[in-house]
Hints:
mainly alpha; 94% helix; THOC7/Mft1
Amino acid sequence: MLEKIFQCENAMEQAYLIQVMNLEQANRYTDLLEEIDKSIKTAQVDIMKERERLKEARVIRKNRQEYHNLAKVVKEYPERQETLKKLQKMKVELSNLQNIDKMYDERINLRKKQFHLFLVALRDLQKIIEQDAPIPIESVEQKSTNAESLMDTS
């Protein structure tokens, strides 16, 4: 019977040790669970921070691309000073062309006046000719024969 008591005590001691070991293991699992929860929360915070950094990086990249595109467009056009020089040259050329145009307009107006004066003089000459009495043809023939006879005698 001593043996049975010893076996019972031994079984109880083993059960007690198993129970203690199970409690210790449960405590370790609880601690491990807390560590895992903490690391999950830390990872979530890190993920949120990295998402923000990613958004900022995307905005920066987008801004850089826009800047480069605008820089390309700006390079296509000449500098402001060069453009102003060209504009000034074109203004001078336009002014010269306007002066030439004005000169030609004045010349055309002068020619119009001269032509009008010529037409008026021509009309007056036609009126004078119409008002003159017609010379008889016989007298013209006699004058021409007299002129011929004078030429023959000389």
